[in-house]
Amino acid sequence: MIKINAMAAYGKLHRACLIASLLALIACADVMARQPTSAAQAETLLRELETYRNEGRLDKAVELANNNPTLPGQLSDRTMRARLWRAYGALRYATGQWEEAESLLTQALTLADDGPLKAAAANDLGLVKIARREPLRAIALFKEAYAMTSVAEDLELRVRAGMNLTRAYLDHGQWGTLADSLASNAKDLALLGDAPAATPQWLRLGRLYLEAGARLNAADYRLRSFQVLQKALAMSRRADNKAQESYALGYIGQLYEQERRVEEALDYTRRALFAAQEVGAEESLYLWQWRMALLLRQSGDSVGAVRSYRQAIASLNRIQSRVQDHSLVNFREVIRPLYYGFADMMLARSAAMTDAEGKQSILQEVMDALESMKLAEVENHFNSECMALPERQTKLTEIAGGGAVFYPVSLADRTELIVLMPDGARQFTLQVNASELQALTIEFRTQIEAYSSGAGYLAPAQKLYSLFIEPVKSELQRQNVSTLIVVPDASLRTIPFAALHNGQTFLIEQFAIATTPGMTLTEPAPFQRDGVRVLAGGLAAGAQGFAPIPGVAAELRRIEALFPARRIQDKDFVLKAVKREIAQGEYSIVHLATHAEFNSDHTKSFLLTYDGRLTLDSLQDSVGLRRYTGAPLDLLVLSACQTAVGDDQAALGLAGVAIKAGARSALATLWFINDRAASQLIGEFYAHLNNSGQSKAEALRKAQVSMLSRPGSSHPSLWAPFLLIGAWM
Questions:
Q1: Taking the model in full, what pTM does it have?
Q2: CB 324 within 8 A of CB 20
Q3: Following DSSP, what letter does each residue of 325-383 receive, concatenated?
């Protein structure tokens, strides 16, 4: 029997995160009782924070900062306060807490008087703006930082700010300023001479030239990159620094790869790999193993390519659990391409196999790899490894009774669909590539979201049905599958599978449907009906510029009629009260009927309260600890949320909301819908959920089918956007 492997190591990590959080809270209470700290003690704290960061021990640095949360405000010296706020802000940036980092660094920038400190704060704040996808503001801050530095005062900071500015130009496509910026970087770097900080920056400059050459297909940039990297290689060898030598060799290998000189590229990449292995530099080892896999595949050595892919994934998995600096590993540029490259090769091999046992083994390996990638993707999106992951993850043996899992994998030349059924896995190759599938899903979402579009959604709905359901339908029927659990990929996160159509009926009329970011992110726990208590909160009145949602009052009253409930509405639905009730109340269901928005930057995602905005981080703080007290939240319901059309990262935030919040499952909407329709559907969902023997997925299916059968509410824009996320039982 095929199963999805549990990730026990991650469970230990997240329990450690919980313990660290509790210790930090206790320490904070202790610090608040102390007397204001002297400037000398603050200086000692700064040195300790810098030492921990230089050693890569961000966990210790965070603990130290958490133990002294109010220290900067206790200091009378303005410059010392700015230095501490800047140190705290840089630490929050490194650990992915971008909203807090922005606030702290803004304070530091405002307080700082001297040039170098002000420049450093501006540079760090620019990095946060890049992380929060505000490139133009970041460019302005990097320019400000660069202008405030001088060769005499702080050459290293000037180099860093200049490099950051060039990186921002490159990533934002400002080609007109790129050449001058690169030349300025080289000029500043030359002044560093053989200083210890020089070699990493020469490597960085070589990488910038390399990327510019690739994006613009410019031979002059590639030549300049080669010259810079040769200089960095010589410097690293003089210093006997194998880790830096490895990067220089690896980047030169990429230059030869750009020139399509595969043999030379392989030679340099092997040398980079050996140098990294010699000193155990795992932070770069997976990169060169991945590049080896790509090059071996180009040279026709598929066996060697698969071996290198496996090595790269194993190396990346080893460091993923301990990578604390969230600026180090880029998901879109490294992790996703690595895992998908491996899946591409293995699925092509599997499709050609006739040996059933061997085919199952390959599909199992691919699914395990995809699950590792899904976990990395969710943690990357939420910038946190201290997420409320389930203690026990789902295995196929626990979904065999009527469940099937869909794993779509969209590739450059095709889409592969792995369907996990009670008797094993099946592979289906779909003749639609990633760009074609993205266009189709955007068309479907655009048409179906608008009630005024009429039946315009039907054509894309039928195309998607013919792609994903028709090839599988006979097997689903043969194995009596009643529930489809979709692990969506990329743009597929933005659409409701419930509204796929075969020309006569919607998919929801045939199957109950749930979605999850990953099976190992889902806890196999059926809904517990005994002792259900509901927190029912929401905004019927308008607040903070958002429109009223009149149907909320009736929606909350209907919940009260079905379950024991605590209702807080409108002026009582304030941020402090909501957080208190969620954290302290013994609720198995939290129902929030209010405006909610999910953004590509998860720190900008929120649920609206009467007087504020409940962020996902705050929601996690309120709910997450309950998972470890024996009373986890069973269901989180958000009945008026929305994600942007075609924004798969915002949709990933929606899909991950249950995990982020520490709930077993969530019910949420892809777009904001008519509040009367939402109230009707939610009411029916709860009514069916209240019946014994009904799974959450089946309760939602019956509510949606009931809606679509009624005149005036049959258009899928009114019922399809509701997604059940996580545990569907």
A1: 0.87
A2: no
A3: -TTSS-IIIIIHHHHHHHHHHHHHHHHT---HHHHHHHHHHHHHHHHHHHHHHHHHHHT
Structure tokens at 536: 């029912």
Pseudo-torsion of CA 613, 615, 621, 625, nearest 10°? Answer: 110
pLDDT at 299: 96
* CB-neighbour burial class of residue 2 (10 A; exposed 0-12, middle 13-18, buried 19+): middle
The predicted-structure confidence for 293-320, as pLDDT tens digits, reads as follows: 999 999 999 999 999 999 999 998 888 6
User: In a 3-state reduction of DSSP, which class is residue 173?
Assistant: coil
Q: Are 437 and 468 in contact (CB under 8 A)?
A: no
∠ CA 707-712-715, nearest 5°, is: 65
Q: Are 581 and 538 contacting, i.e. CB atoms less than 8 angstroms apart? A: no
Of the candidates 269, 715, 311, 196, the one whose C-alpha atom is nearest the C-alpha of residue 496 is 715
Query: Between 203 and 318, whose confidence is greater?
Result: 203
Q: What SS3 class is residue 718?
A: coil
CB 265, CB 284: distance < 8 Å: no
User: Distance (Å, rounded) from C-alpha 44 to C-alpha 37?
Assistant: 11
Residue pair 680/664 in contact (Cβ under 8 Å)? The answer is no
Query: Which 3 state secondary structure label does DSSP give 134?
Result: coil
The torsion of the CA quartet 424, 429, 435, 439, rounded to 10 degrees, works out to -80
Buried b (16+ CB within 10 A) or exposed e, 370-388: bbbbbbbbbbbbbbbbbbb
Residue 698's Cβ-side half-sphere holds a number of Cα atoms within 13 Å equal to 16
First to last CA, the chain: 20
At residue 616, does pLDDT exceed 80?
A: yes
Amino acid at 187: K
The 3-state DSSP class for residue 484 equals strand
| Separation CA 508–CA 514 (nearest Å) | 10
Residue 250's identity, in one-letter code, is: G
663-708 tens-digit pLDDT: 899 999 999 888 888 889 999 999 999 887 789 999 999 999 999 9
